[in-house]
Amino acid sequence: MKITFFSHSTYMIEIHGIFLLVDPFFYGNPLFKKDSKLLNRCIKYFKRIDYILLTHAHYDHVCDTELFANKFGSLVISNYEISNFFEKKKLKTYGINYGSFISFPFGRLKYVWATHSSVFDDGTYGGNPGGFLLQTKDKKNIYLSGDTSLTYEMKLIPSFGTLKISILPIGGVYTMGVEEAIIASDFLQCKKVLGVHYDTFEAIKIDKKKAKEKFYEKNKELFLLKIGDTMCI
Length: 233
Description:
Elements: E1 2-5, E2 11-15, E3 18-22, H1 30-33, H2 36-45, E4 51-53, H3 59-62, H4 65-72, E5 75-79, H5 80-87, E6 92-96, E7 102-104, E8 107-113, E9 130-135, E10 141-144, E11 163-169, H6 178-188, E12 192-196, H7 208-217, E13 221-223, E14 230-232
Parallel strand pairs: 3-4, 4-5, 5-6, 10-11, 11-12, 12-13
Antiparallel strand pairs: 1-2, 1-14, 2-3, 7-8, 8-9, 9-10
């Protein structure tokens, strides 16, 4: 399994040749507005996108959904309200909610609690925000928290199996910061964390060196990938 990071909360998960794009945010992303060549390199990376996973309806998580879904014929997976929104735009969707695991060719997926908000740019209600618990056939389980503050609900996640890695926001202000993410990793019983949702905007800029040091002091590892970098799980 591979995870390729594209800034903010956008990343691609490759599982046995199946590609899942999470929360696509490219053309409205201020990091790419500053560097169009970097944007073009990222877009050229995509040869196929089988699924698009959306955690909530905020613009910085859904703005390029139609672009990629139409280009690659991707299946959009999200909560009922977001799925219904994009179904009306003639995209292929699969609406879910907080509930059971659902089986897909890449593994099993469960929509889980997130403490945040969820509304489209035009004011349309985006349903309950969430994250995803992904279980692969080779038992490489990943928790994709989405945008969230620290919540006691995270303590339930390990009851569904040991996590290989958790993907958590660390920028603060709108989501957890570094300190809360460390506590979250305790709740999740997971020592490896891929940090997301930082540095994209002025309000969520962090000191990356200090963030890694804080995780290290707690005997944990924080991965902060550069745009386009890949890690193997």
